[in-house]
């Protein structure tokens, strides 16, 4: 089996990087949209909506991502739905991401001073108008850095999906390690791949954090 | 008919009975100053008038808009009631002009050009015509509070509520804000204000309402109340601030 060249290894790993990137982007975009809905539910005036969103967040933050993936992947086949590893992975990571983003963003919304709610309420703005024109623009500024920071967690979280058979970077790596008998080289390259994806994000996040603190509020 | 009518208002904060049956009428063009010690319920009463505080019992009516206990639809009422806060509460991400334009544009759905001319007129009224494009953090406290007044006026409220609007200001900035309020009063604006500026309350107010332990303890013409308080509590209060 040693007719696999280093170039073959790198080429296959690069393919894996693309799948990891694709899964991360999918989870981040869909998770962001779901997280936004969760945020609105979490601060809604309807009590049952708030409780439902809270329960959702508790469940997905309080259990390992791996268990969530198992339950989605194996559970779906129990009820007769054959989800491909890709679909199960995308669904699992989306749910996971939405729970965290919803909660991060709620914190940002709640850090906007109460006086902003009162002033906009006294001007007769509805709840959604308050959010759209007054609260979210201010919360967004606070949210950018922790959101980009969390995206690093999403990228690393995709590694777990290799266990349900989705062929991303880690899965590609283990298959190559088995074929080449060079696990140290292969997994070293795998780690390098993750680092190449995550490092720019964390640098970006740090820079945003600094500029959010250093500049004026508008 | 009175512009603002408050009937039998009761409010609790937990087990604390903060408003114990308030009855109050405010006529159109009247300037009412609410005075009293902290904790007497004057701010809570003021904040009830535009629904920022819920109440358990009673009725508030402003220019025909009724507000019942537990009511959640406040949009019509709030369009008739403007409010200015102690901490200004300007929107920091919007310029002074945008702060003033926001509600006419979003709530009244007026065309943008019209909102802008309203905003310019209102800022001119409070003496800040040249600050249309300035952001709140570029303005002094007194200027911010004047923008906040312009913002409330842009909705053409029937009554303006002022909640200790000079308490957060440096002493030298108080007079510019009071001058604006005085002009509004002279133009016939109906005002209900919680204030610690007794001299101002006496000068501008038509009616003084002294609150004590959740009740209206005494009310009437400012001069009468200041010179001939009928209750020892009011005499005491006046004595303590002079």
Characterise this structure:
- Chain B: InterPro entries: AAA+_ATPase (IPR003593), ABC_ATPase_HisP-typ (IPR030679), ABC_transporter-like_ATP-bd (IPR003439), ABC_transporter-like_CS (IPR017871), MetN_ABC_transporter-like (IPR050086), P-loop_NTPase (IPR027417).
- Chain B: GO terms for molecular function: ABC-type amino acid transporter activity; ATP binding; ATP hydrolysis activity.
- Chain B: It comes from Denitromonas iodatirespirans.
- Chain B: Its main location: membrane.
- The complex is a heterodimer of chains A (218) and B (242).
- Chain A is an all-alpha fold and 218 residues long.
- Helix content of chain A is 81%, strand content 0%.
- Chain A contains eight helices and no strands.
- Chain A has helices spanning 6-42, 47-62, 65-78, 85-110, 114-122, 127-157, 169-180, 183-214.
- In chain A, α1 (6-42) packs antiparallel against α2 (47-62), α1 crosses α4 (85-110) and α1 (6-42) packs parallel to α8.
- Chain A is elongated.
- The model of chain A has no long low-confidence stretch (mean pLDDT 92).
- Chain B is globular and about 55 Å long.
- Chain B has helices at residues 42-48, 75-80, 96-106, 112-125, 141-153, 171-186, 198-204, 222-227, 232-241, and strands spanning 4-13, 16-26, 31-36, 57-62, 65-68, 81-84, 159-163, 190-194, 207-212, 215-220.
- Chain B has one domain (4-241): Rossmann fold (3-Layer(aba) Sandwich).
- In chain B, strands 6-7-8-3-9-10 form a six-stranded mixed beta sheet, sandwiched between helices. A four-stranded antiparallel beta sheet of chain B has the order 2-1-4-5.
- Chain A binds chain B through residues 45, 113, 115-116, 118-126, 129, 133-134, 137-138, 141, 216-218, and chain B through 50-52, 72, 74-75, 78-79, 81-83, 85, 87, 89-94, 102-103, 106-107, 135, 137, 148, 151-152, 155.
């Amino acid at each position: 089996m040693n007719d696999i060249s280093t170039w073959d290894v790198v080429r296959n790993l690069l393919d894996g990087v693309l799948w990891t990137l694709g899964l991360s982007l999918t989870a981040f975009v869909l998770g962001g949209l779901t997280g936004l809905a969760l945020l609105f539910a979490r601060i809604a005036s309807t009590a049952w909506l708030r409780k439902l969103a809270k329960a959702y967040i508790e469940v997905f933050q309080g259990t390992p991502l791996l268990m969530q993936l198992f339950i989605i992947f194996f559970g779906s086949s129990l009820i007769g739905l054959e989800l491909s590893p890709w679909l199960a992975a995308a669904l699992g990571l989306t749910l996971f991401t939405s729970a965290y983003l919803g909660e991060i963003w709620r914190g940002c919304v709640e850090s906007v001073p109460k006086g902003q709610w009162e002033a906009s309420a006294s001007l007769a703005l509805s709840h959604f108008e308050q959010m759209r024109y007054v609260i979210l623009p201010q919360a967004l500024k606070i949210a950018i850095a922790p959101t980009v920071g969390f995206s690093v967690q999403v990228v690393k979280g995709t590694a777990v999906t290799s266990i349900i058979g989705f062929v991303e970077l880690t899965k590609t790596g283990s298959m190559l390690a088995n074929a080449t008998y060079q696990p140290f080289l292969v997994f070293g390259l795998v780690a390098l791949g993750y680092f190449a994806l995550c490092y720019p994000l964390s640098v970006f996040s740090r820079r945003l954090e600094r500029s959010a603190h250093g500049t004026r509020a508008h | 008919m009175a512009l603002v009518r408050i009937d039998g208002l009761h409010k609790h904060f937990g087990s604390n009975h903060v408003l114990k049956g308030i009855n109050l009428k405010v006529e159109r063009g009247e300037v009412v100053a609410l005075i009293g010690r902290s904790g007497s319920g004057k701010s809570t009463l003021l904040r009830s008038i535009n629904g920022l505080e819920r109440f358990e019992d009673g009725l508030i009516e402003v220019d025909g808009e009724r507000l019942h206990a537990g009511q959640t639809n406040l949009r019509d009422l709030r369009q008739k009631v403007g409010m200015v806060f102690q901490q200004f509460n300007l929107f920091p991400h919007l310029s002074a002009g945008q702060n003033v334009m926001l509600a006419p544009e979003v709530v009244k759905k007026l065309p943008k050009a019209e909102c802008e001319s309203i905003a310019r007129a209102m800022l001119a009224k409070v003496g800040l015509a040249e600050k249309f494009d300035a952001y709140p953090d570029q303005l002094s406290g007194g200027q911010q509070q004047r923008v906040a007044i312009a913002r409330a006026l842009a909705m053409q409220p029937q009554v303006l509520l002022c909640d200790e609007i000079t308490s957060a200001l440096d002493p030298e900035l108080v007079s510019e804000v009071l001058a604006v309020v005085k002009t509004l009063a002279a133009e016939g604006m109906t005002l209900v204000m919680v204030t610690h500026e007794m001299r101002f309350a006496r000068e501008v107010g038509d009616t003084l309402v002294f609150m004590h332990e959740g009740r209206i303890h005494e009310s009437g013409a400012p001069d009468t109340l200041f010179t001939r308080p009928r209750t020892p509590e009011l005499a005491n209060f006046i004595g303590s601030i002079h």
